Amino acid sequence: MCGITGAVWTDPNQRIDPDQLLRMTQQIAHRGPDDSQTWRDDHHIDARGQALGVGLGFRRLSIIDLAGARQPMACEDQSIHMVFNGEIYNYQTLRLRLEGAGHRFATNGDGESILHLFEDLGPDCFAQLNGMFAIALWDARQHRLVLARDRIGQKPLYYAVKDGRLVFGSELKCLAAVDGVCDELDLGSIDQYLTYQYVPHPNTIWKGVRKLPPGHYAVFQNGRLSVHPYWTYDPSTQADISRTDAIDRLRELLSDSVRMRMRSDVPFGSFLSGGIDSSLITAIAQQHSDQPLRTFSIGFPVADFDETHYADMVARHLGTRHEKFVVQPSGVDVLDKLVWHYDEPFGDSSAVPTWYLSELTKQHVTVALSGDGGDELFAGYERYHALHLSERLPRVFPVHRLPGFSLIQRLPDSGRRRSLIRRAKRFAEALGQSSPQRYMNWLQIFSFTMRAELYNDAFVQQLPADDPIEFLLAAWDRSEGRDLMTRASTSDVVTYLPCDLMTKVDIAAMAHGLEVRQPMLDYRLVEFAASVPIELKRRGSRGKVLLQDAFGSLIPEQIFSRKKMGFGVPIATWFRNELKPLVHDTLLADDARVSQFLRHDAVADLVAAHENHRQNHCYRLWNLLFLELWLRRWT
């Protein structure tokens, strides 16, 4: 687990000199505190006789082969150089095959298998990798730089092509260290951010800067960049499979995935929230361990946001060596840190507990397993069932036509995370819309109507014609012919999962030099789960029943029957108390940076409605405040 950066240039005036490459690399020192290396070639001549320059930078968090496997790494004849962030879980199998083909290995790490596989297959090699990764390979033989990102987007990779130069890095701050790269905001991305609470790939907050989409590779050759998919995720096909066979296949895949992700030469543990997913991953890992597994949970002194008693129950049941951290989270203290590390606007407030958990876990281990992905793969979110009900209810009983139905929107909301009134409002809004629009209702932070009221005229006139919902629609169309819950959950796999959850975990964990591995996101398991009929995943309003059928005996039954809590902090209360001065001093100030896009009176109305308990706007205010602080820090 590491951080990578670098550049390729043709114009000597665009060269990245050694000091600049070092600065780019130092920007991500937190991702790799154990080692730092750079490599440059200023004198390469391509097939057309044109001079090329290339530089690669690397920060290392040592996990496997601690003494060796330093990067940038080169093949035997020095014709290919590589920097790589992540883990390749099937590297030992690949190594045996490559050694059989005559390759000689100089290290015992996982990265060298990529290098030799690329020698044989070129970009076709990425489809052979099972892991989480962001890779950059300089191929002197073909005079090209090749970038690649893992299938699910667990590892980030940003790039920009300007004036015949490509610059890339694990975080945007690498690119921002180069003059002329991150210099103009992408206004369409601000619209997307206020819709989704993240900027969807391939866009970033900066015009001309891109994220490499998950499951894709890019080739920069002859001054041009081309992007290609290497993984075809096809959720449109449903398997004809019995419950018994599905259980057997799930047991095989998830057990193997956990086993593969337990290889480590440094202290190792598992997040244990007390929910279904982390409990099952921990239970399977404990089966593969000959000693008590180290487990970690975090709790807060607010009952609605604390589930450590469930984590304690699972830990006792499994016999793990458990650490429970109880903290008093502070939005004021952590916001500046989040704005620095999430170096484009990112509005998921669960980054706060993820930050604290990563910080405290790193004090004990360097690698932790996580249960991320279970809700998306096995239909765990309540919004999937709500979508199903919103399709059926109007046909059976047209409740949305009853007198007074619109009054639901006027009911006062509470700050409790699972407010019944808030959920009823969102459900009512969705009735009568198309399926993807209804689903968008549960995803979006600011609806189209709210954004129209919020934006000032000048900003609206500069926005592109593209509607942010097109990102969701493109994913929705991939599962044509499937039931609504499957369409929603498989869409999440290629949208919400990489853009929100994976970004949240990667940045929070790597800020503290912690590697997080997610067994649920093995691509074999993702493909299998997409093919499973919804009837095997849900019974009535309950999701994840296939996980219970396959592994229910491993953990207490109460974990499956308890209400889902998620992972959050009391931001509704924060905005009426500790965050209130910050909001008034920044978001509502005369010099507020968001005023170039948003109507000051509309923002003030949102703040007042929340502070006066007329409506709970906590998530919207968090997104606006994060945007304001980000603009102050990065522009």
TrEMBL record:
One GO term describing the cellular component: cytosol
Its EC number(s): 6.3.5.4
Pfam families named in the record: Asn_synthase (PF00733), GATase_7 (PF13537)
Superkingdom field: Bacteria
Keywords: Amino-acid biosynthesis, Asparagine biosynthesis, ATP-binding, Glutamine amidotransferase, Ligase, Nucleotide-binding
One function term, GO molecular function aspect: asparagine synthase (glutamine-hydrolyzing) activity
Keyword Glycosyltransferase: no
Family classification: Belongs to the asparagine synthetase family.
Entry protein name: asparagine synthase (glutamine-hydrolyzing)
Gene3D superfamilies reported in the protein's UniProt record: Glutamine Phosphoribosylpyrophosphate, subunit 1, domain 1 (3.60.20.10), HUPs (3.40.50.620)
UniProt key word Ribosomal protein: no
Binding-site residues, L-glutamine: D110
